[in-house]
Amino acid sequence: MIGYVTLGTNHFEAAADFYDALFASIGAGRAIEGETFIAWSTSPRSPAVSIIKPYDGKPATVGNGVMVAIAMDAPEKVDAFHAKALELGGADEGAPGPRFGNFYAGYFRDLDGNKLNAFCMTGD
Questions:
Q1: Which domains are present in the chain?
Q2: H-type helices in 65-123, by residue range?
Q3: C-alpha to C-alpha distances, 120 to 5, 75, 81, 88, nearest whole angstrom
Q4: What is the mean pLDDT of residues 12-24?
C-alpha cells in the first residue's frame, strides 16, 4: 500500500552517503534521483524511501511522531540494520529487541534527526 516515504534533509550529500551505505546493506539501491531528490528501493515496483531538499526552500525539520519503518524478515537482520545505521553516524533511539507480542524492532535517527526503525514479526 505504501509507495514511498520522503524525508527532508539539510545535508543532501551526507544524507545520500548515509542512505547509500545503509540501504546497500539490505540490497537496495538508488531507484530515482535528481538534483534535490533520491529514492532507494529493492526493485522498481517495491516501496521506496527517499530524501529531498524541501521544495519551498525552507529548512527541513523533523516531524514529531513521524517514523519510517523498514521491514525485515528476521531479528538478526533488524540487529544488523540498526547497527549499520549507528556505524554510519545515526543515533540510537531504542536498541533492537522484542517490544510486544511477536513484534521485534530497533529504532534510530538519521543524520538529520529523522526517526526510523527496522522491524520484523517473530514466531507464528
A1: 4-54+67-121 (3.10.180.10)
A2: 75-87
A3: 19, 6, 12, 22
A4: 98
